[in-house]
Amino acid sequence: DRYQRRVHGGKDSLSESDKITLETAKLIREDFLQQNAFSEHDKTCPLYKTVWMLKNIVCFYEMAIKAVQETSADNPITWNRIRNDLSKVFVGLSEMKFQLPDDGEEKLTVYYKKQHEEIVNGFHSLVD
User: What radius of gyration, in Å, describes the C-alpha atoms of the chain?
Assistant: First the structure.
């Protein structure tokens, strides 16, 4: 938020890569780092859950940056396009934290791997 306020023209004056960085940082701050010790999904976070959540966030970030950098002038890929076309995938990143550790590592790993595949497939569809 502070970075956004320092930019004279607001978020619209940022490069597409900077917009992706800003939104990813917001996702990490609000959905990964914030915890609620009174909730079932947040009171503990096993290492495997932490690793998978970060792995998927980083995967989304890297693929978004790559898509923007390798875009063509006649069909540009922007943050808004990524956000709109891959809205389900992006929302899924926020929803990862709500998986209950009590469900067990095997079940959660299947969920996080599926999420990872959706990220990869979503960006492949977007770029093709």
Answer: 16
* Tokens representing residue 118 in the block: 């959706």
Q: Which amino acid is at 24?
A: T
- List the pLDDT tens digit at each of the 128 positions of the chain: 555 555 455 777 899 999 999 999 999 999 888 877 777 777 788 999 999 999 999 999 999 999 999 988 888 999 999 999 999 999 999 999 999 988 999 999 999 999 999 999 999 999 88
The pTM (predicted TM-score) of the whole model is: 0.87
Q: Distance (Å, rounded) from C-alpha 113 to C-alpha 91?
A: 16
Residue 75 β-bridge partners: 72
Cα 73 to Cα 6, 13, 41: the distances in Å are: 29, 19, 43
- The helix/strand count (H/E) of the chain reads as 6, 0
